[in-house]
Each structure stands twice: as C-alpha cells, then as structure tokens.
User: Fold LemA family protein from Paracoccus siganidrum.
Amino acid sequence: MNWIIILAIAAGGLALYAVAVYNRLVGLRQRTREAWSGIDVQLKRRSNLIPNLVETVRGYVTHEKDLLDQITRSRAAASGSDSVAERAAVEGQLGAVLGRLFAVAEAYPDLKASRNFQDLHASLDGIERDIQHVRRYYNGAVRMLNIAVQSFPSNLIAGLFGFRQADYFELDDPSERAVPQVAF
Assistant:
C-alpha cells in the first residue's frame, strides 16, 4: 500500500514538472513571436521611409536611375519574404543598396545640403539603430527557446508537444556586416 502512495506522489510530481516545462516553453515561444513582431515593425518603418527617400534623391540624382530602381525592387522583395532566414537575406541586401545610395549622395552637394534629405537620413539612422536593438532582443529570445527545446529533460516535453527551434535573424554575407562609410 505504501508503494502505491509513493508511486502516486512521484507521478503527481512528474506531472507538475511536465506542466511547468510546457508552460515555460509556451512562454519562450511567445516571447520569440513578440520579438519577431518588433523586428517586423521596425522593418516596415524603414520600408515606409524608403519611397520618400527615393523621391527626394530622384530630384537631384539624374544619372542613378538604376540604383533607385534597385532600391525599389529590394523593398518589394523584402515585403514578400516569408521565413526569418529569407527576410534577413533580403533586408541585408536592401541595407547594402541603401548604403550605396548614401555613398552616391556624396557626389551631389545640393542633395547633401537638402534639409529633407538630411531629415530622412537621420530618420533612417534612427530606424537602423532600432532594428539592431530589436534584432538582438529577438536573437536572445530565440537562444532561450532553442536551449529549452534542446536541453534534457525539457526536450522530451518539447518533442511531445511539437515545439521547434526558431531561426536566428542573422546576415549570411560577411560584406553585409560591414557598415558603409558615409560622411556628410
């Protein structure tokens, strides 16, 4: 009879532990989704700023139509990407093209002196900083989720209930990691 009580207590303790691990995994998954939403918001802010930037530059830069078209295509591709890895790659390309735009602006003193261009450049700088902050937060949330999904014994609960590892938001091309040197 005593062994039945001990077995019932052990089963109850195991069930409570499984519930606690499951709830922790749910919380980590939600934190990761919330962090991705933060990245998405900042990327949309940047995407919404780009048409204003292109129109401002278009008035000054007459020989750079190809670059402006490339920015427009990159922006469209960024809005159509689905996975985290695909979105990171496309956003990295968009960032590189924007860096080229600011480098080209060096050759146009009237453009650099334009208050509208300066304001847009300052806004884009702020958004880029915000993207870096939310990206670090997202990657931290992904790290915590991935550790819980891979670690024993929580990996047993994760596998049982279909929790999967999340992808980091990272740049694949080392040249995309380089910050463009732009001096105004």
In short: The chain has one domain: 2-177. The mean pLDDT is 86.
